[in-house]
Write a structure and sequence with these properties.
Elements lengths: L2 H8 L3 H31 L7 H29 L2 E3 H34 L1 H7 L2 H29 L8 E3 L2 H4 L3 H36 L3 H21 L1 H15 L4 H26 L2 H11 L15 H11 L12
Antiparallel strand pairs: 1-2
Helix pairs in contact: 2-3, 2-11, 2-12, 3-4, 3-6, 3-11, 4-5, 4-6, 4-8, 4-13, 8-9, 8-13, 9-13, 10-11
């Protein structure tokens, strides 16, 4: 969110603002209910407890729920209180920043786990243990918190304490607005995203080549390629959050009368839509999760067959493609 966004929002009539906020809150509740059912399914079945893939996945789901709640709270509060207390605004912005950075890092960890499971199956149980998985999650939170905490320290050093009791337009650049912080944010985002991109591209190519070398099933290979293209399109969708500020400024000069509506659509596309697609791709398409979800939704017992310890390489490849792709969740960093 930027200063022009807040200024435009203050000029909207009540019924338009109400419809926009009602839509955002309703979508947030629906998405969090879907994600909440996945979290409930995970903690209700011990079959997921000892699988690093599902542990990393459910961590991503919880992280997305927190991020979505923070983003929607900021969106609604800027309508209700155009001038917000700096302390409250800082907490919400930092939560959004932490969780936004956590998501790509978590997905990179999921990709590496699937790479080890497919390309190093004999060492997978030794390398990817439950304890190391939780250690990785703790490391993700530490790395994700570094940029935001460093910005907070700079503000504490350069600003008087009375600044945190004042009221401002709540957006990140109004709190962390020194030239050094702007450059640091851009560099940090670039470094994190390049590392994630390289990790995902390397693991995908290795898995794809391993699948081609181990099977003659052209249908499976074609399905893997199509799925990668699908998630690649989702990645391009989520990357719109990086260019959306520039696009919004450009559109302002051409159609200023529709600028408020463009801002709202941009928020839906870059913040809401990716988190609506994420549970559908990761959870509903997963066979084990889908069967357990049917148990609770249909209120009946469903028998779930446990796969052998040594999965066929073609099936493991399909699981990797379905479970370890970078989905549009890097957005929110530029809130």
């Amino acid at each position: 969110m930027n200063a022009s966004t807040a200024q435009v929002r203050t000029q909207e009539v009540f019924h338009i603002a109400f419809v926009k906020n009602f839509t955002v809150v309703l979508l947030g509740i629906v998405i969090n209910c879907i994600n909440g059912s996945l979290v409930f399914c995970f903690f209700s079945n011990q079959v997921f407890y000892h699988n690093p893939r599902y542990i990393l996945y459910i961590h991503m789901v919880i992280n997305d729920m927190i991020q979505l709640s923070a983003a929607i709270s900021l969106h609604v509060l800027t309508y209700i209180f155009p001038l917000m207390n700096v302390s409250i605004c800082t907490v919400l912005v930092l939560i959004a920043i932490f969780t936004s950075i956590n998501t790509p890092l978590n997905l990179a960890g999921m990709a590496v786990e699937r790479y080890i499971a497919i390309c190093e199956p004999l060492r997978h149980s030794q390398i990817c243990t439950v304890r190391r998985t939780y250690t990785l999650i703790a490391l993700i939170w530490c790395v994700g918190a570094v940029p935001g905490l460093s910005d907070l320290v700079i503000v504490l050093v350069t600003r008087p304490l009375s600044f945190f009791s004042s009221n401002i337009l709540c957006y990140s650049l109004n709190i962390f607005n020194s030239p050094y912080q702007k450059v640091k944010t851009e560099v940090t985002q670039a470094v994190y995203m390049v590392c994630v991109w390289l990790t995902l591209i390397y693991t995908y190519l290795r898995v794809l080549f391993a699948a081609k070398a181990a099977t003659t099933d052209t249908a499976s290979a074609r399905k893997a390629r199509n799925t990668i293209l699908l998630h690649g399109a989702q990645l391009l969708l989520c990357m719109l959050s990086y260019v959306s500020p520039t696009v919004e400024i450009s559109l302002l000069s051409f159609i200023p009368q529709y600028y408020a509506h463009i801002l709202f659509l941009s928020f839906l596309i870059t913040h809401i839509l990716p988190r609506l697609l994420s549970p559908l791709i990761y959870g509903v398409r997963d066979e084990k999760f889908r069967k357990y979800m049917k148990t609770y939704l249909l209120c009946r017992k469903v028998t779930v067959k446990v796969r052998p310890a040594k999965e066929p390489l073609s099936q493991m490849t399909s699981n990797f493609v379905d479970q370890s792709i970078f989905v549009g969740t890097a957005n929110g960093i530029l809130i």
